[in-house]
Amino acid sequence: MTETVETARLMDAVYQHQRHFYDLTRKYYLLGRDRLIADLDPPAGGKVLELGCGTGRNLIAAAKRYPSVQFVGLDISQHMLETASRNIRKAGFEDRITLVEGDASNPVALDASGAQVFDRVFYSYTLSMIPVWREALAAGASRLRPDGKLYVVDFGQQERLPQWFKTALFKWLGSFHVSPRPELEDELSMLARKHGLKLTHKALYRGYALFAALCKD
């Protein structure tokens, strides 16, 4: 059994039931998502990719904010994509949001979307769930236009929060197979050097979340 199949089965098992109340509960602790959407600012007529799109919540919010832009969302969980598809149809954005089932770490998984490159690529609390998260970052960067921008928001290292809070949070996240990545900033720096991009990053909410962007100077 390949790692991709194992990951897909794990994510389907985790979200088979959670997907029905995922958005209701996650809004309280997946902080910074709306800031990321506001910062995307894609060009008119552009294309935006979310790797690890889950229920489609971010794609729908972005489609409302940027009415001339096309969106693609990729996720490895069939259950999540079923929920995303329903949500997108309900919101009336099926003509502007394309969903693809696949592994975010596989650069060719997006071929089914019909788009080769994107003006914006973003990850919202997904890298902490993807076992091969470095490969997922590299795959997204490989799909970026030369003048495009890549955004990440995910769990930080809680550096300005009490140790008891960090210990309790990480233990709780671990029960959902979520692992905040202490090496994320270093990996983003490496990608910036490789692709000739500038990295900007900021700790949000006393280190609760990390917000980062890769773009041309």
In short:
The chain is α/β, with parallel strands linked by helices and 217 residues long. It has helices at 3-18, 22-26, 33-40, 57-65, 78-91, 133-142, 163-174, 184-195, and strands at 47-51, 70-75, 97-101, 118-124, 144-155, 198-204, 209-215. The protein is built from eight helices and seven strands, in the order αααβαβαββαβααββ.
Spell out the blueprint of helices and strands:
Elements: H1 3-18, H2 22-26, H3 33-40, E1 47-51, H4 57-65, E2 70-75, H5 78-91, E3 97-101, E4 118-124, H6 133-142, E5 144-155, H7 163-174, H8 184-195, E6 198-204, E7 209-215
Helix pairs in contact: 3-4, 6-8
CATH class: Alpha Beta
Number of domains: 1
Low-pLDDT runs of 5+ residues are 10-25
Q: What level of helicity do the residues show?
A: 25-40%
Secondary-structure element series? HHHEHEHEEHEHHEE
What's the β-strand tally? 7
Distance between the termini: 43 Å
Q: Looking at CATH, which topology would you report?
A: Rossmann fold
Report the structural category: alpha/beta
Counting DSSP H or I runs of 4 or more residues, the number of helices is 8
- Overall, the morphology is globular
Question: Any overview of this molecule?
Answer:
The protein has 8 helices and 7 strands. The protein has one domain (3-155): Vaccinia Virus protein VP39 (Rossmann fold). The protein is an alpha/beta fold. It has a 7-stranded mixed β-sheet, with helices on both faces. Pfam families: Methyltransf_25. Residues 48-148 form the Methyltransferase domain. This is S-adenosylmethionine-diacylgycerolhomoserine-N-methlytransferase. InterPro entries: CFA/CMAS, Methyltransf_25, SAM-dependent_MTases_sf.
